[in-house]
Amino acid sequence: MGTATLVLVRIQRQVVDYALRRRSLLADVYAGRVDVAEVCDANPYLLRAAKFHGRGSEVTCPICRKEQLTLVSWVYGDGLGPVAGSARTPEELLRLAETREEFSVHVVEVCRTCSWNHLVQSYVLGHTPAPTRRRAGTRRTAAE
Predict the structure, then answer these.
(1) Measuring CA to CA, which residue among 21, 12, 17 is closest to residue 104?
(2) In sequence order, what are the beta bridge partners of 88?
(3) Structural domain contains residue 11
(4) How large is the C-alpha radius of gyration of the chain?
(5) Which of 21, 71, 77, 102 has its CA 20 to 30 A from that of 28?
(6) Is residue 16 a part of any domain in this protein?
(7) 92, 101 in Cβ contact below 8 A?
(8) What are 45-98's pLDDT values in tens digits?
(9) What CA–CA distance (Å, rounded) separates 118 from 59?
């Protein structure tokens, strides 16, 4: 684990882990209730992002068992401008977290051999937006 990754772990908020959903989906695949083609459907953009922006993991692909999965982090948020909807490295995420208001990160695991992909985790990074202040002359009544 790199330094940037360790720092990111400390500053993540509203973390959601999708391990139970992953486990349920894999059980359905292994039981034959879900076809392998339905879960090995990574699009070319995701596969390219895994190659250029992904970071390796210790987890072997649960479908083909031929390679270690690659983790790709996607960023979304109104304050990101043209960066929104793109894949980012841990170092880029750290820079964005220091300079931007809140944005969400979605981490997807990808197998570049069989195209397995699944959402692993989501979390929030960035500065918490400042609360809007009321003008001093404005008073609220109990009816408001």
Answers:
(1) 12
(2) 73
(3) yes
(4) 19
(5) 71
(6) yes
(7) no
(8) 999 999 999 999 999 999 999 999 999 999 999 888 898 999 999 899 999 988
(9) 13
